[in-house]
Amino acid sequence: MTGDYAVIALYIAGMLGVGWYGLRLAKTKSDYLVAGRRLGWFMYSGTMSAVVLGGASTVGGVKLGYTYGISGMWLVVSIGVGILVLHALFARRLVRLKVYTVGEMLDLRYGGRTSAVSGVVMWGYTLMLTVTSTLAFATIFKVLFDLPNWAGIAIGGSIVVLYSVLGGMWSITLTDIAQFVIKTIGILAILLPVAISSAGGFDGMSAKLDASFFSFTSIGTDTIITYFVIYTFGLLIGQDIWQRVFTARTPAIATSGGITSGVYCLVYGLAGALIGTAAHALYPDIASAQDAFATIVERLLPTGVRGLVLAAALSAMMSTASGALIACSTTTTSDLLTKLGLKKGGEVSRNRLATLLLGLLAIGIAMVVDDVVNALTIAYDILVGGLLVAIVGALFWKRGTRQGAYASMVAGTISVIAFMIIDGVDANTPIYWGLGASLVVYLAVSLATPRTSDTILSVWTRRLSGAETPIENREQEPTSA
Hints:
Number of strands: 0
Largest sheet: none
Mean pLDDT: 86
Low-confidence stretches: 474-481
Keywords: Cell membrane, Membrane, Transmembrane, Transmembrane helix, Transport
Family: Belongs to the sodium:solute symporter (SSF) (TC 2.A.21) family.
Oligomer: single chain
Pfam families: SSF (PF00474)
Strand content: under 5%
Subcellular location: Membrane
Number of helices: 19
Structural class: mainly alpha
Membrane topology: Multi-pass membrane protein
């Protein structure tokens, strides 16, 4: 394993070095939270791909492929479709708004007083998303050092927290580009062809496995539909994703770079399912499907190459964990602490402190959660059930009111949590009950309350068209990066 240790050590040192360099770039709030809104096409596309394809998409995607075959691709495919829809329909508008959080957008559209509730929901979502990728570190460090889960989580999580705290979005952007390249090479160029070839190609896998492994619907049509409801809609409204959209230098860059990223996600989803299918053909008696990724890497690849693929998996986990962590920090400082009367000033230091404390909290939670896919489901169920209706209503229905948005967020979130308790975390019903309750309440309360004032809607319209720039951004016109 000496060669593997050397590769992983170089990778970790590189991530920390980039994080330290990012410290020099993060001078303002805009630098720290949205990389100065200066990213060009390649950096934008690479970082968007990196943030959405994390531990759940890599370890979890291979796990689903091991269990269901090619049909295991639908979780990651639904994420890719979400990225495509977001950038085809919404990205240009979001870039022109020049906000930092989903809550700020809701306050701008509805006239304030909604970001406290949306901030709580988004805070829970981004924290659990951080947990899912932090949890997945255990798999990699178990293979490398035979460490217990808690130790692997502590090591991987600490690295992410350190470089995120140092340079914020600039550190995360620079590390994400490196991570994007590494996981493209490790997962798509090395592990995928080696796994399929070792399993005897498609003919060999067909001879060893049941026909259901090659059905696109073996995971269940209801589950596939639910994946699209949860993850496609979730990608449209998540703070971690919007915060990356805000980093684009222009609306056109956001659109073209995001569509490229969406296509990449579709390819990645299919690759993970095929790797899992090959793993089942080769090693049908793995005790836990969660270990399918680590098993096939450990048993198939030579030293050095194995280290590169494990570094690729770490890249996927770290990019999502760091993106979710900075999103959670941003929501905390911009949407929650400001509502408690926290004055402006020292914003970068305050965000660094919030990032540190939230990172430590995520590490602690990850040590007591044992299923990466279930943790991701919790995060997205709460997000979509609580916020989707109010956000889509803000963008497309002028009759929507602050009272309607507020009530829909409360009703949707409570319904999701209640049905998770009643039917179970992995049930399909919570998200549908949450969306139903949120939609009915939003329509009813909005129609029963006074329309949003023309003054508020005129400011919203000017910002949405790019005709008005927020005061804090007028002295920081973006340049190329």
